[in-house]
Specification:
metal-binding, 12 helices, binds iron/sulfur cluster, 4 iron, 4 sulfur cluster binding, iron, about 35% helix, 4Fe-4S, two-stranded antiparallel ribbon, alpha/beta, 2 domains, about 350 residues, DNA polymerase, domain 1, single chain
Length: about 350
Amino acid sequence: MNISTKNKPASISNQEFLLGKSLTQLTDWVQQQGQPAYRGKQLHQWLYQKGARSLLEISVFPKQWRESMANFPIGRSTIDYRSIAPDRTRKYLLRLQDGLTIETVGIPTDKRLTVCVSSQVGCPMACDFCATGKGGYTRNLQASEIVDQVLTVQEDFGQRVSNVVFMGMGEPLINLEQVVTTVHSLNQDVGIGQRNLTISTVGLPGKIRQLAQHQLQVTFAVSLHASNQKLREQLIPSANHYPLEQLLEECREYVTITSRRITFEYILLAGVNDLPEHAEELARHLRGFQTHVNLIPYNPIQEAHYQRPSQQRITQFTQILKQRKIAVSVRYSRGLEADAACGQLRTSLNEMR
Ligand code: SF4
């Protein structure tokens, strides 16, 4: 798919990283450095296909030029620590150029390699069940820092990444501009189909409508986690500024503008939001909606007292939604043993070990 680069700046300054930039932008940049235009294509290939970490490595460049540009910031992180779960899921603690750390997860299956990327250092949303939310918030990530996560996992597995989900640390819609730039870069520069990218949000007033205007072909997932406003505010403190009805109204607008279905995510917490009346209430809200519901049995963390529901409760909840003609599936997060599952990501090495 040919995606416009209108969301990217026309040229890049010396303060910005090269990663995340399009072929056109890289070509502009090499020309600004006094090099012929074809070096832009070479740079693009070395950044996105060969994983160059420094301009010095790019052996097709003239020796004198690459030596003079050896310290120019490309935007690659380093792996501080890596843990591997028995199901082969790998969780990485990555150190950014400014010394801050984030987590990224690589999830392999027989046919796919999915990366769960972070969009912020920490997260300001403070969801009550989430380890990231308990750790506070530092800053948004640049597009280069999100693209780097995908390349890092690809290189470590020695396998092409097929899917990317924005479900790591952070609320992607707070960092909407950089997330949209990342989507274009992953699509055009790294070569991952937009339909294999998933943006997930707990919802922020006006932001879903704003995302819809970009007309992306990505999968869009909204984390409801509750069947009524009171329960939602208890689990997601930021929801007290965003009534459930208003959230659902923006979701309907999203479907109208993009003609794309929305996935609703619902973490099942034992005795909190997993009762039959919650399933009935959820079904009432979603009646007539073009949607799919992902039920996610909770992954326990030390910082919160919630528990995963019994299998019987999960089945009962699922059955009620199915009887109400709601498309539903249960998603068991991978990487539980490496603390790499949904809601278990943190920024510190001590917490990770
Ligand atoms: S669940 Fe998502 S939005 Fe909520 S605190 Fe965790 S990372 Fe942030």
